[in-house]
Write a structure and sequence with these properties.
It contains twelve helices and 14 strands. It is of the alpha/beta class and 376 residues long. It has two domains: 233 residues, Aspartate Aminotransferase, domain 2 (3-Layer(aba) Sandwich); 120 residues, Aspartate Aminotransferase, domain 1, CATH 3.90.1150.10. Helix 7 links the parallel strand 4 and strand 5. The longest helix is centred in the C-terminal third of the chain and has 32 residues. Bound molecules: pyridoxal-5'-phosphate. Pyridoxal-5'-phosphate binds next to helix 4 and helix 5.
Amino acid sequence: MKVPFVDLKAQYNSIRREINEAVNSVIEAGSFILGKEAEEFEQRFASFCGAKYAVGVGNGTDALYFSLKAFGIGEGDEVITVPNTFIATTEAITMTGAKITFTDADGKTLNMSPQCLEDYLKKRFDKSSVKSPLPRAIIPVHLYGQPAEMDGICWVAQKYALRIIEDSAQAHGALYKGKRTGTLGDAAGFSFFPSKNLGAFGDAGAVVTNDRKAAEYIMMARNHGRKKKYEHEFEGRNSRLDSMQAAILKVKLISLEKWNESRRKHASLYKSLLDGIDEIRLPYSPQWITPVCHLYVIRTKEREKLAERLKEAGIETGIHYPIPLHLQPAYSYLGCRKGDYPVAENAAQEILSLPMYPEMSSEMVEYVCSEIKKII
Ligand SMILES: *Cc1c(COP(=O)(O)O)cnc(C)c1O
């Protein structure tokens, strides 16, 4: 049996007619940038999240960048995030002119540790001469589709007057104590990269927020700083949501809950079949969250062997992510060293993402698990 890591074609096949109609109608209307399709999608996505505003942009990286900018973060500021995330999180920080600081992940959830965050800030503000850049914001990442520990994070953020920008690129629809990601901080960046839980047929993203001023700023900033066609309040960027992508996202949003439910079903089958194997650590979810299982990430000291042998059995796997950001060549200038963030570093050695997408069958999950048991 072949088990791909994701199968975007299978999803397209399940909604082929609706997608084709949506794409055709955009072509017939001849309006390709923002417009009615984007506005409708923005409204529906905001209401899906339970937020007041969603602003469509070109991609998830820009969504994070605009979110920071909307709250005045830039040069002379410091923004804190975790080292075990995709580089887009930190690229967004650098794009604003702010400085990146890392704080380690929690060993159980692999999300931002409120304790590490507080320890860092305590030290940071204890120094007799507090030097700039000063921490102004944090970006917790809802990694693998699992909301970060927001109560603790919000508490620390409030104490130190920090803005919270959620990186929700992997967590469309996930719940933390009954609230959707995108409503747990000041603003949230979503990505609609094709393989995300809600994926376009190209690049796309959105900022979700309850802050009217932030939403208004981003609506201009994404579109050359303008409100009217040739009146520019400031220099913005070109980072708009294409009408075609918006039309596709509108169709896909209808099925998102069903797809997330499917992912959860596969995750619980993985869990029941892999439970009790000493060499494998399964993902941990606190009971007060509902994850959307963007990735199903196990941990094992035998990762290389396992990945290799699974590949031979026709099963694709991934590693998200093999090198923590503080050890990336791109960030050598930050002067971090091995051992600085041990939780993230240990995880990077052990994590393995198993196939996970809504359209996979239970038989596929069973096959993956039986092969794993053969190997270990
Ligand atoms: C995908 C992703 C992004 C960025 O999204 P793009 O749309 O590719 O720019 C940001 N953060 C995380 C954690 C992601 O997985």
